[in-house]
């Protein structure tokens, strides 16, 4: 006596086959999707040598750095003191491709414009 009202074993096997096929299709579809890409928003403080440093040229040099996973954003000049302004520039990086150490190294290569200090704040 079947208490749940299903006498057909063939129907149960058919339903199981359909369910397995759907699960297989779902797994294939999910495997094709790319995984999450971790990104960070970084605010860099780039300090010039003195008040006579060409800030437009310094920003041009910083923006000339191109890497896979790096996108430059907005920038502004922020007064530090004694007529000196620092460049604050925003960028978004893919964490696995670009790190803050690499960015700092690349920026400090512009020795004519950038003093040894490059600070950053990371978020997102």
Topology:
Blueprint: H1 9-32, E1 39-48, H2 55-63, E2 70-81, E3 84-94, H3 100-108, E4 114-123
| Strand segment count | 4
Name of the CATH first level of the domain at 39-109: Alpha Beta
Structural category is: alpha+beta
Query: What is the global morphology?
Result: rod-shaped
Helix content: 25-40%
Strand order of the largest sheet: 2-3-1-4
Weakly predicted, low-confidence segments: none
Return Rg in Å: 28 Å
The main pleated sheet reads as: 4 strands, antiparallel
Output the number of helix runs.
3
The CATH architecture of the domain at 39-109 is 2-Layer Sandwich
CATH fold-level name of the domain at 39-109: Alpha-Beta Plaits
Order of helices and strands: HEHEEHE
Query: At the fourth CATH level, what is the homologous superfamily of the domain at 39-109?
Result: Ribosomal protein S6/Translation elongation factor EF1B
How far is it from the N-terminal to the C-terminal residue, by CA? 62 Å
Beta-strand content bin? 25-35%
Mean pLDDT: 83
């Amino acid at each position: 006596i079947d208490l749940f009202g299903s006498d057909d074993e063939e129907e149960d096997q058919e339903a199981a086959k359909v369910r397995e096929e759907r699960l297989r299709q779902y797994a294939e579809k999910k495997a094709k999707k790319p995984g999450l890409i971790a990104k960070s928003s970084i605010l860099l403080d780039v300090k010039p040598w003195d008040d006579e440093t060409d800030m437009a040229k310094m920003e041009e040099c910083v923006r000339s750095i191109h890497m896979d996973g790096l996108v430059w954003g907005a920038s502004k000049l922020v007064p530090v003191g004694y007529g000196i302004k620092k460049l604050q520039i925003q960028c978004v990086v893919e964490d696995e491709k670009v790190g803050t150490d690499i960015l700092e190294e690349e920026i400090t290569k512009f020795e004519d414009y950038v003093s040894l200090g490059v600070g950053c704040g990371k978020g997102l």
